[in-house]
Amino acid sequence: MVSRETSDQDLFGPALQAAQRYAELLATQGIVRGLLGPREADRIWDRHMVNSALVGHWIGEGSSVVDLGSGAGLPGIPLALARPDVSVTLVEPLQRRVIFLQEVLAELAVTNPQVKVEVIRGRAEQVNRTFNVVTARALAPLERLVGWAAPLIAPGGMLVALKGSSAQQEIDQAQAQLAKAGLSASVDVFQGVTVVLAQRISD
Predict the structure, then answer these.
(1) Cβ(147)–Cβ(177) under 8 Å?
(2) The CATH number of the domain covering residues in 4-200
(3) Strands, DSSP E only, in 152-191?
(4) Rounded to the nearest 5°, which phi and psi values hold at 158?
(5) CA distance 202 to 184
(6) pTM
(7) Do β-strands 153-163 and 193-200 pair in parallel, antiparallel, or remain unpaired?
């Protein structure tokens, strides 16, 4: 039987210790500062760290990723730790969250200089460049999320939105917005993680 430690090592590789430290920061400062609810303390690793890192399953090698409404850094920071080949930009409008993100990244960079993460304080509509992948987690229903994400998706790129059991229902409700943005969406599941994948429709 494969132990959880083995699977964690496979997921985060050399950055496992940094991932564990980030989980500690989420469980302490993240909760104290109101970025996560107190009930999340016992499930930070499985629900937040592992699920976020598994987003890498849908992301190509060397991709540029923007994480909208990053909050406490999920899924962006675990993704960056698990996939050092990927460059991640965290977009977050609230200053107190941005300060937390900057403090976390400054600490993690000491032992993980290969991890490429940038923090932008602002909203999606204030970001003036495109990315291979746009991610979001618990930010908004798909019908609203599409409008924020679509301008940031580079040609050949896609939106990877972490969702739950209502993923297909959200796609059905967002058909008009998806069509307007020129996106085609589907639900995919990998190791218990459910996402909506929205890709540009080829001309």
Answers:
(1) yes
(2) 3.40.50.150
(3) 153-163, 183-190
(4) -160, 165
(5) 10
(6) 0.93
(7) antiparallel
